[in-house]
Amino acid sequence: MRDLDETDVEILSLLATDARRPFSEIGERVGLSGPAVSDRVTRLEETGVIEGFTVDVDRTKLRGGVPVMVDVDLAVDAGADSDSEPLEAARERLRDANPVEHVFITAEGDLRFYARVEGRTVREWLSGTFEGVPVDDWTVTLVDEVEWTPSIDGVEFALTCAECSNTVDSEGETARIDGEVYHFCCSSCLSRFRDRYQRLEEGA
């Protein structure tokens, strides 16, 4: 199966939001004609990426990576007064890691994070990410399903994509760019936002 390009991913995102959306409308959003969008959707159905009228997306066939929860066992230096330095060093690495979406620090000071990484390179990616950080070991758990409903004092609210203003659900992405945190509904929007941000910086 050929790799999905950004246009395929954007079409999937639009169909996932509204499976009854006309191909002509999708074409206007992605810069293609209605028939060209229809051809792409047919190919996605034939390759098994789209299953059924409601657009059941098999995300293992996308480039988004495999969702994992990682528990990090930080090394404790017996000669140190506090283990905050290894923790801060690990958190700093995770802030700069694109696959990482959420980082958690427990009341006991343990480090846990959720990320989407390439399934065949999870261990290799972890080794590279924490190179030079005092880590004894880590435990990787494959996440089967994620449900994320953000709320404040029990009142649900919706995040909007910084690029297209669509609602960001549990499959969205979060990125820290120049110290600011932005939320995106898909990887395509994140890429377009990064590219435009970089062009604006270069022109400044």
TrEMBL record:
Q: Where is the HTH asnC-type domain?
A: 4-67
Keywords (A to Z) from UniProt:
DNA-binding, Transcription, Transcription regulation
Q: Which InterPro entries match?
A: ArsR-like_HTH, AsnC-type_HTH_dom, HTH-Siroheme_Decarb, TRASH_dom, TRASH_HVO_1752, Tscrpt_reg_AsnC-like, Tscrpt_reg_HTH_AsnC-type_CS, WH-like_DNA-bd_sf
Q: Which GO terms describe its molecular function?
A: DNA binding
Q: Which CDD domains match?
A: HTH_ARSR
Q: Which PANTHER family match?
A: HTH-TYPE TRANSCRIPTIONAL REGULATOR LYSM, TRANSCRIPTIONAL REGULATOR, ASNC FAMILY
The molecule here is called AsnC family transcriptional regulator
Q: What lineage does the source organism belong to?
A: Archaea, Methanobacteriati, Methanobacteriota, Stenosarchaea group, Halobacteria
